[in-house]
């Protein structure tokens, strides 16, 4: 999965995009304010080995003259963004043919990659009912393989609980930034507290709900006992067209609830179908929604 | 509205069955889904926690119930009264048996049937025809496929009461055959069903639609089952058996009259339902015939309340023994065996017209047969009526070839030996009873209306007179040759063939019917076959003899089975019909009606089609 997590052909296109969040805007405004006191705002941070694809303008030619090696001169930038990616790894994300999990991971890779390209700090957290694994503080394009390797290694786990997972130790970084939650948001215990907790940690939250076609438009018929993949709870239904209509109504209502919750808290909420290609999600859905520009 | 097959009501159980199917928890298939969160929201109203769920408004359920109700209605075969026959061609069968003379209020059942049939005929529509049949002793077609109402009504008016039994099977078969030849035919049967059941006639495959219209409801009837009298030493003893065919106790009086309708004795009787009782009289004054009459309090059929009895008397017959050589054995046997006054002659009588009950010729062959029955022993010459072919020595033992003949009853031929016997040619009407090898020893039969027995051998050429077989054989022969003395005539039932033995030598014979009608008897022989008229009562045979007038009586009575007047049903058609319970629905059938079954079944089918469509569309 690691090699093909993202198609190399459009990685280049991805580089030209950047996350457009309110935090990012605030950062750039802060940069403008710091421009009045030139030099003080830019603080030397580190030298970094050049990798093909890095911005040539940032090459330290003096260092090259001295050592004959290409180094990038890195500055600690106040406008640097902390991007936190939360991936739902509960069983409900993996079940079925649609591959919600795969789609969520690809989206995370896309977000992470374009953030790395802009020298943002990228942290990725995988959770089900608790934090399962994480990789933190990635920065620079050179960290892209790490990011992708981490993402490729994610496997679906047990039952999901967003509220509990986000409140576990180390799930939220102390620094303000953007938090993107990729999940189906089908949690028995709800999602409100967890998202509110993220917001309280000065995070600009983006909720991306990934649902499969099966969930939006069930294709099965007849007398069924529907078993929850996470909780093993069973529901008996006689699937008639009347009931299917009811179900579609329920789905719409739930998405409206999520959307209303998000709107009320100034959160961006996006619905994504797992069957859609990553390219179309990124270039059309996210761009249209103004999350990426 | 009538229900022609109320017995199918059990099918209504399908309604609770359908409802239960909807109440029962469904059998489900397991399917794992990512999350049931969204389903939970949807299922709040649909969730089934208990095995029973609340009956929801469901279009399919209502359609199924509708189809079931329609099917039940169709099975009950509702019919609405119509004004006339429903078929284009109707075979109208009117049953005419003794039980149809039962009174139902003002009318007899037969009159009811005729009235119903007349009403039917009057309502004939344009293009509708009727074949009128009477189911009597033999089925009779009165009018064939006619639309002429006057002709049909006239034929109905000609139906006369019958006291015999009806051949239901033949009438059903004929009506079915007539109906089968004509498309759109139906058979309507008006009657009380008889005791004969149609189930044995292969009813399921009846070729036409069949409707049975029950005539009558009464079942209470008492009848004289038997009335016999016997001459004792001084008086006459009588016995009456009274049968109660009804369902409640029957009481009444029984009275005995003599020939001149003089009351001899009277008694009362009480018979439980379905039982019989016997009343006897020990000292009835002498009379040639007696009449017993019962008067029950409740009685449907009057014709079986009267019975006649002719006392069993053994009269003395006259026999002539012609034996030129004399025959002690024969003379002794004839004297011994019975009621015969034996006159001995040396030669056959010259004078014509001399009559005896029986003539016995021993070693003599008369030129022509005398008046009366004949026993011929050891013929020695041919005559016009006897093809004599000589004699033959016998070396084989006699053997009875017709052992079941009444003449050979209890006669043992095993130790009998015969030295020689006459050889006779074929005589029409005679059959061989005993043979030795190929030679006939004893023949019996009818020649020229007379009963004749020929014994081919001389008794002296045989040890037969020394055997026990001899007196028995002679007794049988005399009893057969002189039946007029041995047993009374009858009793007989209407429509039967009755053999009436005649006294030889009578110059004039007349049969007098109960209503006084006289009918001369044209028969030169010693018996006369009479087809018993369809009229019950006491018949008299008068014979004018040289010695004066001789009268004998016989009674024609209804068959015992006809006294059971309880209405029964004839069913034709489907098996379901046959399973239906008796009686109830049939009385209602008297009116014409049109069944709605086909329409209901069609609507039920439509409902099922709609249901199928609804199921497919998943409403």
Task: Describe the protein's architecture and organization.
The complex is a heterodimer of chains A (293) and B (619). Chain A is α/β, with parallel strands linked by helices. Chain A has 2 domains: 25-76, no CATH class; 82-289, von Willebrand factor, type A domain (Rossmann fold, 3-Layer(aba) Sandwich), CATH 3.40.50. Helix content of chain A is 38%, strand content 24%. Chain A has 11 helices and 10 strands. In chain A, the strands form 3 sheets. Chain A has a 6-stranded mixed β-sheet, with helices on both faces. The longest helix of chain A has 24 residues, at 241-264. Chain A is elongated. Residues 24-41 of chain A have low confidence and may be disordered. The longest helix of chain B is centred in the last third of the chain and has 21 residues, at 597-617. In chain B, the strands form 9 sheets. In chain B, strands 19-18-20-21-27-26-25-23 form an 8-stranded mixed β-sheet, with helices on one face. A 5-stranded mixed β-sheet of chain B has the order 8-7-4-9-10, sandwiched between helices. A 4-stranded antiparallel β-sheet of chain B has the order 14-13-16-17, with no helix packed on it. In chain B, helix 1 (14-23) packs antiparallel against helix 3 (59-75), helix 3 runs antiparallel to helix 11 and helix 4 (109-122) packs antiparallel against helix 5 (149-157). Chain B contains 11 helices and 34 strands. Helix content of chain B is 20%, strand content 33%. Chain B folds into 5 domains: 2-80 and 598-616, no CATH class; 83-218 and 567-591, Rossmann fold; 222-312, Sandwich (Immunoglobulin-like); 317-483, Rossmann fold (3-Layer(aba) Sandwich); 497-556, Sandwich (Immunoglobulin-like). Residues 574-591 of chain B have low confidence and may be disordered. By secondary structure, chain B is of the alpha+beta class. The chains are: A alpha/beta (293), B alpha+beta (619). Strand 8 (222-228) of chain A pairs parallel with strand 2 (29-33) of chain B. Chain A: It comes from Brevibacillus choshinensis. Chain A: Residues 47-255 form the DUF58 domain.
